[in-house]
Amino acid sequence: MSFMQALHARWNQAGTLVCVGLDPEPAKFPARFAGDPDAVFAFCRDIVDATAEFACAFKPQIAHFAALGAEGALERLIAHVHAEHPGVPVILDSKRGDIGSTAQHYATEAFDRYAADAVTANPYLGRDSVQPFLDRADRGVVVLCRTSNPGAGDLQDLVVDGRPLYQHVADKVANEWNSHGNCMLVVGATWPEQLREVRAIVGDVPFLVPGVGAQGGDAGAVVTHARTADGSGLVISSSRAILYASSGDDYAEAAAREARALRDTINRAH
Ligand SMILES: O=c1ccn([C@@H]2O[C@H](COP(=O)(O)O)[C@@H](O)[C@H]2O)c(=O)[nH]1
Description:
alpha/beta, TIM Barrel, eight-stranded parallel beta sheet, two-stranded antiparallel ribbon, 12 helices, globular, binds the ligand O=c1ccn([C@@H]2O[C@H](COP(=O)(O)O)[C@@H](O)[C@H]2O)c(=O)[nH]1
């Protein structure tokens, strides 16, 4: 089954648009992990197991692992998701982009080394830089469009040929780069109007939507502004608000409560 088929199956079968972000920060882990050399894997595994029933996807952010020298933990974590929660796709958030010959190695890194089902990609080097990802028709390519951060507009809003650059990205991805039907777009929850505008340009292309939870985006507004005709089309991602819902021994139960609450907020907005 391809990434896109798996995502649609998960939306339909589990009734959730929540993506659980996996951004390990050992300083925020509960005290019980102090001194544990395998803390990164163990903490993230517990979060995965506690939240899987509320998740349409998991999204590990690669820098949070690589900065700790914990790439091995990331490999084992993704293998754990595939083994214990089959049907819940993994989107590796690495925002890669480089000349084609190097991008080929980034595609190998994401899809073969880490066995991710999808990967985030930076479009600003142009189509050839994303082509090695696009060519893997069974995997997803999640292209940055209008990011959630405060400075998103510095470059993405620059007007080119009468419309903002992020709208050109949306148009190109939907109408030129998506020949295998394996593309998604990143549009931040912090920008409801832009969510609506991008949805109008791209039809049913799914969105990865970070920015709810710690960044303050309104999950209900994401749904009303950007769902597709069938009420899905969204992978709404929250990391810190779920991961660090409690710093006590109830961290896994607290994470599950947060993920369930986000799912319910989203489903009520339909
Ligand atoms: O536009 C973007 C693209 C990616 N991210 C990533 O999502 C999570 C958000 O974490 P929270 O704790 O839910 O704020 C993080 O991994 C970012 O690198 C984003 O925030 N915005």
